[in-house]
Design a protein that fits this description.
The complex is a heterodimer of chains A (about 110) and B (about 110). Chain A is about 0% helix and about 50% strand. In chain A, the strands form 2 sheets. In chain A, strands 2, 4, 5, 6, 9, 10 and 11 form a 7-stranded mixed β-sheet that branches. In chain A, strands 1-3-8-7 form a 4-stranded antiparallel β-sheet, with no helix packed on it. Chain B is built from no helices and 11 strands. Chain B starts with a strand and ends with a strand. Classes of the chains: A mainly beta (about 110), B mainly beta (about 110). At the A-B interface, strand 5 and strand 10 of A face strand 5, strand 9 and strand 10 of B.
Chain lengths: ~110, ~110
Amino acid sequence: NAGVTQTPKFQVLKTGQSMTLQCAQDMNHNSMYWYRQDPGMGLRLIYYSASEGTTDKGEVPNGYNVSRLNKREFSLRLESAAPSQTSVYFCASSDASNQPQHFGDGTRLSIL
Amino acid sequence: GENVEQHPSTLSVQEGDSAVIKCTYSDSASNYFPWYKQELGKRPQLIIDIRSNVGEKKDQRIAVTLNKTAKHFSLHITETQPEDSAVYFCAAKGGGGNKLTFGTGTQLKVEL
């Protein structure tokens, strides 16, 4: 039982390049989330999907897009990467918004 | 939207002492308050959570208290051990939303 799986684990991009971060969960959870974590700023929500077929903006959505491909998978896309998007990205899932969130191992993304 | 403040940002205690981390929230309708522990380079992991219908919850050396009137909740760790050293995050789910808002984290260091 893998839980929440994120790929890739590390990535270096050049400014202006595009990239999609992948996330999959095997817990049959309804809700999925994308966060970014920067030093001293905690976890900030980028986008979330409360249920299959829906997506909503979080606190810091600018520069990102998401796709809830099916119940298991929720991807995050950077269309034109900027150095300010250098961060650690975490995907999480939960059965509902008032249930514990389970996190993946994160993707460490550097944009030069 | 919900706003969560967390204090202190760093906390150093001697092994065996107690540690207390405090959080305040802004949305009086918030109803779910989890705490996460994150070791260096690892994913955040849930350690305890509390819902708005109870005032206190305990799990071995960890306890959380909730004061809805004052809109604050606290994490208490007793008999601290070196393996308790990590960053701890509080979070709150606003009454009208489907997402968590996280505090900025507390770096706990347990010294021998």
